[in-house]
Amino acid sequence: MNNSISRKEAISKLALTPFAVSFGNYLGDKELEDLSKIMKEGLKGNLKHSVCRWCYPNIPLEQLCEASKEIGIQSIELLNPQEWIVVKKYGLTCAMANSSPLHITKGFNNPIYHEQLKKDYLGLLSKANDFGIEKIICFSGNRDYVSREGGLENCLKGLDEIIQEASKLGITICMELLNSKIDHIDYQCDKTAWGVELVNRLGNDHFKLLYDIYHMQIMEGDVIRTIQTYSDYFAHYHTGGVPGRHEIGETQELNYSAIMKAIVETGYDGFIGQEFIPSSEKPLESLKEGVRICDV
User: Could you give the CA distance from residue 220 to residue 237 in angstroms, rounded to a whole number?
Assistant: First the structure.
């Protein structure tokens, strides 16, 4: 697997990946047996487990569904509408849906994209409601010389009608906090305080933040205290090892078990999305281990 692959590159590659590839082409009998062992004792159930599709570009979606069920994962996320029916067939959900094709760099902080974003999100909300999708991701976009205050005001204007419609349908729009230091240079919503300010100004429970632990460790650190302080603003969490965005075990600097315990103590019982890029030759074993670490 290409360890340096980006989310955008992975999504492009996945669009070309056929679902009808033989399951046996990717997993041997021994790996399938190992994956099933974790279910014998069962998971604790304090948190729900999800996996981000784009991190596994070489594995067909149907195979990822099968493996996820074996591990105890209940959701495959960051999917497009045509993929929702696939996970539903396997009794899984999509805890966080993809959004506009404009993606990360062209977001609500720039008024020139508002018309397109409004069209994309209103159409997506209708489809999500039909499928029972409860959360949809969104992005601030890159600064492109937009000031801190200007970005907040532009996001407020661009999101207002969309959030009102989402509220009617019981769907939450979640803006992701991303690092602007390494992976998403110039991204505006790169600090918790900026995102919290936007949530406060919108003043609607159907707009929250996606707290990506990997990204915020790079930008801010102080992860556990931030979660304790601002948990009411966070509707979803993503994982990833720092540095490198690989496995979340002992090869990186974060103590994910302690972080997950802190999340549970806030009263959160929603989904934890594994969003690390496996460096192992057995990526599904890495995924199983990630779930084990986060199952507190």
Answer: 16
